[in-house]
Here is the input.
Amino acid sequence: MISHHSISFEDDPWDSTWSRPSPAPSSPSGGVALLGTFTDQGPTSAARASLTALLAALSEYHGFDPQAAVTFVNPVDGVTMDVQMISGHQDRPATECPGAVLHDDLPALRADVASAL
Here is the structure.
């Protein structure tokens, strides 16, 4: 999780349970959370910069293409879904997360992450 002050609270993003979503029978995935509600405004510039840096580091470490389209396979029920490698909850089940402003920024975020590699 990344706060608006750019303070990161982490579990273990480097652990091997992060893997590339694929058409394989199981597609473990990882998550990064920004603290806040981004329906009317985006994250602070500090939080956005930390998010970009963290996603770039994770992409490099795990060999992800941050701009790739991938097929996610739900390990529970096997349902597949085509999504972007860096996506929001809103791209999967019906939810407002991460908020319209941040969701609209995802293409630019993907490009920024790719540029940071």
